[in-house]
Request: fold
Amino acid sequence: MLKEFKDFIAKGNVMDMAVGIIIGAAFTAIVGSLVADLVNPIISLFMGGIDFSGLYATLDGSTHASLAVAEEAGAPVFAYGRFIMAVINFLIIAFVVFMLVRSVNKMKDAAAAEEEVAEAAPAGPSDNDLLADILKTLKKK
Reply:
């Protein structure tokens, strides 16, 4: 069983997946910063200064200055602004992944087209053909 586990871990697909997960985690931090530092201020500008991440409603009817204060007080909150931000994060990540996959597919298609052109190009005479031609020419003299 241990040998099977080692074989499983050593397979290329598992290692590729592990690298993908690690890069994905780092990429999540970049996208989080993109949304928080660039996208949110732009959306807030067009929405009249509203910050989605701070939108909430208390379920017990109490009022608090902010979401953080309500959570500190132990009030049950419905933090729908965080959900909106999670949806925005997802859409941005999905779009970036789509663009990456699209680019990789274009590169693969271009490489395949180059291979087809290389295969379609007529091959010159082989070494044996050239040597046979030289031998014929020498015999004629």
About this structure: Helices lie at 2-10, 12-46, 67-72, 80-120, 127-140.
